[in-house]
Structure formats: C-alpha cells, structure tokens
C-alpha cells in the first residue's frame, strides 16, 4: 500500500464530514482509505504503527473539535497517542512519514478535504 | 470450515456511475470465503430487502457485506434485514463505495471500490454475534432541588406515572420562587401545595446527597437528613438546583477604596430593590434610579428581565427618573421585546456604553460616569439608588454535586458544558439530567422546555421498567484484567466499576446500560483485556491488511 493514506475517522465527526464531502462532490486524492472508528479515542498506537509497517504513506486520525468530543475526552486522548507515535518514530529514526491528528465537526466537509490535501502535499514535498 | 460470506453490491438506483460493477463482481467473488456476490440497484427498498433475505436463506450465508451508500444511512436498517433473515444483526459490515468513493473521484474507481469491499470482507470474517437483552431498571426518579423547576418536574413526572423524590436542602420547598411571582405573576403557592398532596411525590427537606454510586437504572444514593442517613435506589437523577446571583461589585474596586460613605442602601441588588418596591413605608422615595447590566457577564438574560420589570414598577409607583446603563439589551426571550418597548415608552432612558461605568460617591449619592456610544460624550449622573449589575451563577453546592456525580461543569460552573454533542439537558453520564438555572441563564419559557424534554427523556428510559441493550458490547476479560483502574479513570461515561469475582480477585466490569460505546477503554487498557465488539484490534488491523499496493 505504498502511497496510501490511512485515515481513522470518528463516526461522530470525520466520517459524516467525509460523507458530506461526497454529497457535495468535493474531490480529494484517490489514495485515501477510511477506517471507521466509534471515537478517535479508540485508535491505538498499534493501529497507527501497523498501518505504517504495511507501507502507508501517512496516517491520519480525525476526531471531533476540541471541547466538543462526542465522548468528552476521546479527541484529546487520540491527540496524545498521535504525539506519542511521532515520538516513537523519531526515536527509532523512521520518521518522515507523517502521522497527524485533525479536529473537525461533522458539518465540515471542506476541512476534511483540506486535511487530506495538506497531508498529500507533505508527502509530495518529502519526495515519496 | 470457512465462514460463508455474502457480498451485496448496490449501484444505488444508478447513482454510482463510475464503477464497473460487472468487473467488480468478478473480482470480489475471488476473495476467500465469499460464496455469493449479488448486484442490485435497490437494496434500501422493500423489493431489494426481500431479495437479500431470500438470498441469505437460500445460500446459507453466515456473514454479510453490503457495498453501497454510507453506513450512516442504512446500517441500522440492514441489521434489521439480517435479523429477519435469521442472522445476528451484528454480522454485517458495510463498504462505503458511494459517498467516499464514487462521488468524490473522477474517472473509473472500480479498483478502489473493490479494495473497500475487501476491507469490509476482512472485517466481517472476524465479527462476532451480539445478543440483545432487556435489563430491568428502577422506575423511581430523584429530583434534586425544591424550587420552581424541581417542583414542576416532580409534578410532571408524577403525571406520567413515575414515582419521584424531591430532595431539598432547605427546610421548606419553594426557595427562590418569589422572583417568579413578581416577574411572571406565577402562583407558586398552589404549585407547592400540589406537590405536597401528590401521592407519587415524596418530599425530603433539610436533606442532602452525600454519596452516589451505580449507573442509569440503578443509582444508589445516600441521603443525609436530620434524623440520620438513608440509602435509596433510583433509576435516574435530575438536577434542578437553580441559580444564585452575586453583585458584580468586585469588578469596581475603586468604589470601596475611594469612599466608604456609600452605604448599602444606595447600591442595591435586584432582590433588595424588589423589597424596596414592596415596602410602602419608605422614608424618601428615590427620585433618580440607575440600573446596570451586561458589562461583566455576557449572559444577561435574567438580569435584563429583572431590570426591565423593576424599572417599570418603579416608574409606576414612584414616577422616578430611570437611567439604564448597559452594553446591549438582549431581548431574545418571550415577551422581552414588548417589555423593553413599554419601558422606553414610559420614559426609561437606555444608555449604551462599551466600558463599565465608573462609580463614585458624591454627597451621599451615587455618581455614575459612562461614555455613551451614540452621544460620543461622557454622561455623568448622580442618582439616589443604583441597582448594580448582578452575576448569574449556579447555586451553592453545584461543585459538590458535580464531584459526587463525577460530571463536568462549564467554565462558569454551570452543569452541562458547552459540548455540542450532548443534549442541552443531558450529561455525559447516562441517566443524569439538568433543568433550568443550574445549567445556565434561562428564562421561564426555556425552563419549561427543559422540564418537558427531561420528563420525556426519563419517561422513555424508565417507564417500561426495562431497557433494551446489546449485551457485552464492550467487555473486560476477567482473566486478563489486573485491576489497574486505568479504564475506570478514563471512562468518560462512568460506566466501569470494580467488582469482586471468585471470592478474592477484583476486576473491572463495564455496565451495558451505562456504556456509550466509545472504545477509549479498549485502546488504553495496558493488559489488552477490553474487547469492543466490531472494533476489536483484530477487526481494525484486518482492514489495514486489506489495503493493497496502489
């Protein structure tokens, strides 16, 4: 799956936002694979690392906006885990492939698209 | 023997145009375990559902993958279809080939669609059936508070047939209802006597909650009364503890420092002013009265209403000159616009100022200086009485209640923080609700709406005496659990408790009733003891496994 972006999408925010992007026919790169999760807080470090191990170009964790998480603390926990992942990757010196967390609300399809575009740009710049 | 997986592809009545379905069917049929692939155009219609049911029965399919629109729309309906066909509703996985594939990309996306189906097939293979069961719940409700909203809630709950306990910390019911009588002309006396005679309502006065345990349907509450402590069980808890007001004088430090000559009589609160209005034996009637609001607190609905009412009353009674200093007059409640117009027509002067006015003392009167936005000049006014700005705060004890129930409060201390995902009257803890002043600056109309919504919600939850839940959706394995308490600490819904099994060992147990299925505990458990059906590690990793090289 070289060149694929794995996106863990919270079913209360990012997943409906991605659906809305579809309804509005907003286009984004085809190489994104969405995995639906009940809350960004469900995403564990192992999920992110496995995706990278399989060859994902980037991993996105998409959750609710700050202070408006459906499960109160899920998005902050996800953010911590993404930070921890980045720290691990740096420590073992396989950093370079982005692992990022974005916050969006279910009615923000443009934010979903811009998150995907942003990460695609980072991948392109790093020459992968 | 391999699990038989049936894949149903749907072109959504021709809405999916850029997928070559014939080619997709051929590719999908080659996936391991897939025994039949169906192509239809109307899975969401009766006709399509019937075909699906007969196919599941005919081919003895054990798991189902549906590749069509987003699971947001059809997942729950398709689960019912599966159950009609004799399968467990949870043995379904959906591939979103419409919103997140066909509609967002130009050109042929057959390959991506096939890959999405493969992800779903990989996941569905690992899914486990989940049973549903009706769990019994306690039908009694605890309403904390004894004011207007609490009494009214108890009356309405009694009307829908739920037994209610009113827990009031004061010695009598009806604290704080005098305001309602003077502002809205509301007869609180008859309301309270109705509460007292109602057989479905038990009133506990001078009583306080000291300990709360359990979960929705089974809260155990320890109540301290004068005579001692009692332990009660409730199905739901409604907080209607109301508000309190505080003079916003601390934001005017120069006032006290400069002149101590201003006695308490010159600067009063709305409540004190109300008493002055009611007092017929006043020595001197105030000739000039100043009012202030909306400077230090943006939520000024309640103080605005009090100001307008009191100003009108004073105008009628004493014919005084009245000046209102404010940032904005917010008239978003019912009848407020009318009241505001009435006040203006009577001759009440409203002065808009951006900064809070400077208050000093002058010859025993209160001198107010403010820069009027429209005049562009300073307005200086010496008045006999200044009704100072009031801050609207949650009633005393809110902090204690929130820590007892372990629920969050907003930045001002009100219950129900600003999280848009929660109901306005609901909390992150199932079965705990808030009404009225304890959750924000609300007027009577909004309080009544709160009461109705809470009564409906509680009735929906408890009236039948049982709640249908999915059993063991999130479960901690007692063999693996080491009772490290991490999950109990992180659970945002307070659904996890420590229970004793096999005599000595203590393990975490997740309540099916209180759990809201977020999976935070499953991700954080260091022993990997918690399994979240449908989103177990295996199921998520299997999806990643399916993503091929592009």
Portion in helices of chain B: 25-40%
Going by CATH, what is the homologous superfamily of the largest domain in chain B? FAD/NAD(P)-binding domain
Oligomer: heterodimer
How many separate helices of chain A? 4
CATH architecture of the largest domain in chain B: 3-Layer(bba) Sandwich
- The radius of gyration of chain A is 14 Å
Whole-number total of structural domains of chain B: 4
CATH fold field value of the largest domain in chain B: FAD/NAD(P)-binding domain
What Rg of chain B is obtained from the alpha carbons, in whole angstroms?
A: 31 Å
Short structural description:
With 128 residues, chain A is of the alpha/beta class.
Sequence-ordered SSE layout with sheet pairings:
The complex is a heterodimer of chains A (128) and B (550).
Chain A: E1 5-10, H1 14-23, E2 32-37, H2 45-53, E3 58-63, H3 74-91, E4 99-103, H4 109-125
Parallel strand pairs in A: 1-2, 1-3, 3-4
Helix pairs in contact in A: 1-4
Chain B: E1 5-10, H1 21-29, E2 34-40, H2 46-59, E3 63-68, H3 71-84, E4 92-96, H4 98-102, H5 110-126, E5 132-136, E6 141-144, H6 148-159, E7 164-167, H7 178-184, H8 188-197, E8 201-204, E9 208-215, E10 218-225, E11 228-234, E12 236-239, E13 243-247, H9 253-258, E14 267-268, H10 270-278, E15 288-293, H11 301-318, E16 321-326, H12 336-346, E17 349-352, E18 358-362, E19 365-371, E20 378-383, E21 385-387, E22 390-394, H13 398-405, E23 432-434, H14 444-462, E24 466-470, E25 474-476, H15 486-490, E26 496-501, E27 505-510, H16 520-524, E28 530-532, H17 537-546
Helix pairs in contact in B: 1-5, 2-3, 5-17, 6-8, 6-14, 10-11, 11-12
